[in-house]
Each structure stands twice: as C-alpha cells, then as structure tokens.
Automatic annotation (TrEMBL):
This is Ring-cleaving dioxygenase. It comes from the Bacteria. InterPro entries: cNMP-bd_dom (IPR000595), Extradiol_RC_dioxygenase (IPR052537), Glyas_Bleomycin-R_OHBP_Dase (IPR029068), Glyas_Fos-R_dOase_dom (IPR004360), VOC_core (IPR037523). Residues 7-132, 153-271 form the VOC domain. Gene3D superfamilies: 2,3-Dihydroxybiphenyl 1,2-Dioxygenase, domain 1 (3.10.180.10). It comes from Ollibium composti. Keywords: Dioxygenase, Oxidoreductase. GO terms for molecular function: dioxygenase activity.
Length: 310
C-alpha cells in the first residue's frame, strides 16, 4: 500500500459559459480565483482555478469552459458529486444564501452522520456542502462570505460506478482505507489527512454510462508532496499494471494521469511549485497567465477570450 498520497489535490470539470462559471464560484460560493490561464491543448479555452487564498492542494476546483459545449449526461464511470467542507452549524446560512442567489437543487440530508446541503452548479454540476467537524483549514475571507461560514476546501468526491470492486482495490492500494458504508455507498478515507480525505464509491449496476459535457467532472487529482514522491507512485502503479502517462509540467504542479477500472480519470499532482510561481499572492488570478508554448498567442487571446469580470 502506498503512503505518498495525501488526499485530494484538485477536481477539474467542464463548463459552458466562462463568465457565468466565474461568477458562480467567486460570488455565490465565495472562493478565490487563484489562476486565470488557458487549456494546454486548446489555448482558445480558459482554464480557471478557484480555491482558498493561496490555492492549497485539497481546495482547488478548476474548469475548462468550452463555448457551445453540449450538456453532460450523468451516469456511471465518472465523479458524481463534488463535496466541499464548511464549519458545523453553517448550513442554514448557506441554504438562505443560495436561495437568495437563485442556486438550484437545494436539498438538506444526512449521510454518514454528517449534515449536508446538495445543490447544482450553472451547468447542472452536482455539488454538496458538508458540515465537517474539526476542519481548521483557513478559508478565503474576501469573497463575500463571512469567515466563520466560508468553505474550507474539499471534503470528498463520490464515484458512480457499475461495479466498485476493482476501483476500491485501487484506492486501497493508493493508501485509502474503508471508513464506513451505507446502502450502495462505501466510504474510503486517508488516515491523518488534511480535510480533503474522503472518496465515496456509489455502486449503480444498471445505470447508463456517463457522457462527458458541460457539468461533467473531467478528472480528479490526488496530492503528493513533490516530484520524487510522484515518481514513486508512478512506478508502483505501472508495476501493478496501470498505463500511466509520463510526468507532465502543468506550470503550477506536475501531473501524471491514468484511467481507473471503473472508467474515471485519475491524476496524481504535486503540491509544488504552487500558484504563486508567476504571481504575487496578493494578486493571484488577476492577470491572464499563459503556458510558455502559447505566449505568442497573447494578443489574439486577449481579444478573443470572454471577459470574466465587470
């Protein structure tokens, strides 16, 4: 069993309208946009990062907003719900805030002894807030949400699978342990993590396969401290039979990718070098930052990318 993985690093999803996506995460959820850059493979498309003040691993929600993209089709073989952690007793605040701001899909429920509020994003993305005990991570406090109520980072992701057995074994190999189960959901967690520690496997044997589109999670990334630890994980996965990409420089972290038995795309990302490598912390996410290979496109991109802010 591996011990290098320290919980979630980021979750990357697809969106339609970039401005609407930015407004939802920065104004409705009160997160900070910590990076405004472009997709490495499609530089005419933004890659937007939302997180806490500095983009701490385990707090980073990222999006590829493709104009005119079709809607995603929920199903198995994907991340179903992305769950954020909030302090105990704050769900009434969030329920009122969301109702006032027109957020849809609001439902209060309790799972695994935790109070949660489910809601949908602008592309019918599936989200939830969970009142997490003892989460002492520092929130972003300048996003319009009081610090005592603000999102701390991720709590968990759920995987929707026809058969969860092989993916469960993979997660246990990656250092997760079974923590609980309820009905068709099995909960796995990293011991001694930093808050973003949980993966739920929801088994849906008769469900249709998901279709990637707006509102779909593209991949979920797990955190390792540095490139040395990442290479150890890569070798262990390959020795186990997984087809893993070479290490790829994503400017703010180094990444490797592989497909799980259930069809979900996993990434293992380094905590280094971080989002302040090309911007001062006080001004994260303000300027358009471009990967080196796309720097020559700046004049065209600045004219053609949709403005995000008023």
């Amino acid at each position: 069993m591996l011990d290098q993985i320290k919980g979630l690093h980021h979750v990357t999803s697809m969106a339609g309208d970039a401005r609407r996506n930015n407004e939802f995460f920065t104004h409705k959820l009160g997160l900070r946009r910590v990076k405004k850059t472009v997709n490495f493979d499609a530089p005419d498309v933004y890659h937007l990062y939302y997180a806490d003040e500095v983009g701490t691993p385990g707090s980073v929600m990222t999006y590829f907003p493709f104009p005119n993209i079709g809607k995603g089709r929920p199903g198995v073989g994907e991340v179903g719900t992305t769950v954020f952690s909030v302090p105990e007793g704050t769900l009434p605040y969030w329920e009122q805030r969301f109702a006032e701001q027109g957020v849809t899909g609001l439902t209060r429920e309790e799972k695994f002894g935790e109070k949660r509020l489910t809601f949908t994003g602008p592309d019918n993305d599936s989200f939830a807030l969970v009142e997490a005990k003892g989460d002492d991570r520092a929130p972003w406090v300048k996003g319009g949400v009081p610090g005592d109520d603000a999102i701390r980072g991720f709590h968990s992701v759920s995987l929707r699978l026809r058969d969860g057995g092989a993916t469960e074994e993979l997660l246990k190999f990656m250092g997760y342990e079974e923590a609980d189960r309820a009905g068709n959901i099995k909960r796995l967690a990293i011991k001694g993590g930093k808050g973003a520690d949980v993966v739920d496997i929801e088994t849906l044997p008769g469900a249709n396969v998901a279709g990637l589109g707006a509102g779909s999670v593209h991949h979920v990334a797990f955190a390792v401290e540095n490139r040395e630890k990442q290479l150890e994980v890569r070798k262990a996965l390959m020795d186990t039979g997984y087809q893993v990409t070479p290490v790829i420089d994503r400017d703010y972290f180094w990444a490797i990718y592989f497909r799980t038995p259930g069809g979900v795309l996993f990434e293992v990302a380094t905590n280094e070098p971080g989002f302040d490598r090309d911007e001062d912390t006080a001004h994260l996410g303000e300027a358009l930052k471009l990967p080196g290979q796309h720097a020559h496109m700046r004049p065209w991109l600045e004219q053609h990318l949709q403005p995000l802010d008023d």
